[in-house]
Fold this sequence. Notes:
By secondary structure, the protein is mainly α. It has helices spanning 8-33, 39-66, 72-76, 106-114, 136-148, 158-177, 182-198, 200-205, 212-221, 231-245, 251-256, 260-270, 273-286, 290-298, 302-311, 314-327, 331-339, 342-351, 356-366, 370-378, 381-391, 395-409, 416-426, 428-435, 438-460, and strands at residues 95-97, 103-105, 133-134. α15 (302-311) runs parallel beside α18.
Amino acid sequence: MAKNGVSEGDSNMAAKAMELKRELQKMVKAIVDADDVDLETTDRALQMLRDLKELKLKKSMSLKLRSGYNDQETVYGTAPEEFRCPLSKEIMRDPVIVANGQTYDRPFIQKWLNSGNRTCPRTQQVLTHTILTPNQLIREMIQQWCKNHGITLSESLQSEEGLMGADRDHFLSLLGKMSSTLQNQKEAAKELRQLTKRIPSFRALFGESVNAIPQLLSPLSQSKCFSEVHPDLQEDVITTLLNLSIHDNNKKLVAETPKVIPLLMDALRSGTIETRSNAAAALFTLSAVDSNKSFIGKSGALKPLVDLLDEGHPLAMKDVASAIFNICIIHDNKARAVGDGAVKVILKKITSRIHVDELLSILAMLSTNQKAVEEMGELGGVSCLLSLMRETSCDRNKENCVAILYTICFSDRSKWSEMREEEKTYGTLSQLAKNGTSRAKRKASGILERLDRAVNLTHTA
């Protein structure tokens, strides 16, 4: 029978603690007095220290429980590390395993994934999928530990998980409507466009199911002709694709979904100007990934982009130019762009002084392709570039102009006389060799040296 408020369990713990202390004193003295360190004795001493700590914690909990106060925060501090979520640092209520085998508390890892992340927060590995598998072993271990320590875990996080579940249900409902009546399709597409624009977690939801993007595209892919689809529905679906592709973790998924690139190409050809502009912007965003650049180029997307550039609608020009530039970073795509008429279209726009900065950058990139250089010479590129160099105050544009002229100079001797005449009349190259950027000076000096050498050789002959 316990007396004076002290339980029989407390008496036993106190006696055991005293016995451990006496044994520990002897062991520490033996370790200190020994000439060499006995590892076995040291290990036993460390284990006794751990046992003493555990007894102290149990005694503390016993006193607090009897006084009607359960300080769970104190007990949480003793929880094994593997029971804690790496994100929240709290004991896990619903432990789940991600694709690379790491365990997290479901609400916290789900929030991470819904924000558009496709990596493991602990290891930074890219996850092959976002399926969460319950970790029953850890769950049972946590439940047993909590039972042994008199802890009841709070359910306060369930509401957050429930909200996310409601979002997911709504998302699936909207996708289901994309195969319904035209009115339902239009309403669902408009809402998906708005949600994916405002809420990153809705963009991430498309990565959780292989069927989500095909369901989104179903009104477009099931129609015999893209132009027959209602214009508002076209625009909302294509713009939703653009919103999805903003997240880096979605770029490969979107581009590699079989019908995406062909439908974006259809949109470039026959959508409203808003739809065409957003299709170009989607291709630009997707082409941030090198493998996508190659895939988009091979798919034939450069031709409709060049055609849209040629049309010259102000709303689409910047997005189209950005997409062409990004895609043509890959060497093979430069030849495709040249074959699709990019040089002629770009020179025409530059001559008209339309979007000179962006288009001159593309032309400079294409000038590493021999056929592009030949076309520039045939289409009056030299006079166009020389006149632009005289007019512009932009160092970057001057640098691009002279870099292209340098390539033409070293590949087409028939253009030397035109460059000499320019130099004789305006001194354009000499001025740049003196006052340009370091790259512009180098290129301008290279052209002048080549022209002078050719003149000297002619006089000698």
